[in-house]
Specification:
The structure holds two protein chains of two kinds.
Chain A (H helix, E strand, L loop, with lengths): L5 E2 L11 E4 L14 E5 L4 E12 L2 E8 L4 H12 L2
Parallel strand pairs in A: 1-3
Antiparallel strand pairs in A: 2-5, 3-4, 4-5
Chain B lengths: L5 E2 L16 E5 L3 H14 E3 L2 E2 L1 E4 L1 E2 L5 H8 L5 E3 L3 H6 L3 E3 L6 E4 L3 H13 L2 E3 L6
Parallel strand pairs in B: 1-3
Antiparallel strand pairs in B: 2-6, 2-7, 3-4, 5-9, 7-10, 8-9
Classes of the chains: A mainly beta, B alpha+beta.
């Protein structure tokens, strides 16, 4: 089970080719800034993403996300290797 | 600052996809509550003919082998749904085809919303191939 930074449907892509969701679905909207690495999705399916941009749309602000390759677990392993003394 | 919903009419294709041969792909695991949330999110952002558009995103394979798409784009998902167009139409869903991810959409009638959720929920689940994970 994952604890994501922002809830998103990882199937959602718009004509930019990026994932999208609304900023108000973030646990901490202040973390959602262009270039930031975050975890998006839900408790069952999550992925590491990079924030591309924030755009006013509909009744809020849409966040575009680049889906990074690999699983969240892969990144955990990567960080553990990198920080091992 | 809020903006306008993005109208989807210009993005719709005129032709209908072949019913039996066109697979659509959606990563899950989906539940009725999740699908309701996703459809409402779409309606916040997208419109069709001036009305909020309830929709759920799916992929259709156009120019990439299915296996490659599953291993590259769907590795994150534990469950992958692979219904065909005919199966979705049985439940009242219609594809609003545009690249890269077609959306399934309905007129905003409560009964049809319910059908949308059930259609996707009943879609045949398949575990991701071991090679993917």
């Amino acid at each position: 089970m994952y604890r994501v930074d922002i809830t998103a449907d990882l199937n959602d892509e718009d004509d930019t080719g990026y994932l999208w969701t609304f900023l108000d679905e973030a646990r901490d909207p202040a973390q959602i800034t262009p270039g930031a690495l975050i975890v998006a999705g839900d408790q069952d399916a999550a992925a590491v993403c990079q924030v591309i941009d924030l755009t006013p749309a509909g009744d809020g602000t849409i966040v575009h996300l680049r889906l990074l390759p690999g699983l969240v677990d892969d990144y955990r392993d990567l960080v553990q290797r990198a920080l091992a003394s | 600052m809020p903006g306008e919903r993005t109208g989807q009419r210009p993005r719709l294709r005129a032709e209908q996809p072949p019913a039996q041969t066109t697979l659509v792909i959606r990563g899950g695991r989906d539940t009725p509550d999740k699908l309701r949330t996703h459809a409402q999110r779409t309606a916040r952002a997208w419109s069709l003919d001036g009305q909020p558009l309830l929709g759920i995103s799916v992929f259709a394979v156009l120019d990439i082998p299915l296996g490659e798409l599953l291993s590259r784009r769907f590795a994150t998902f534990a469950t992958i749904y692979l219904p065909d167009i005919a199966r979705l139409r049985q439940h009242g869903s219609g594809p609003a085809a545009h690249r890269p991810a077609p959306a399934l959409h309905h007129p905003p009638a409560p009964r049809r919303r319910h059908r949308t959720r059930r259609a996707a929920h009943r879609a045949r689940p398949r575990a991701a191939e071991p090679a993917v994970r």
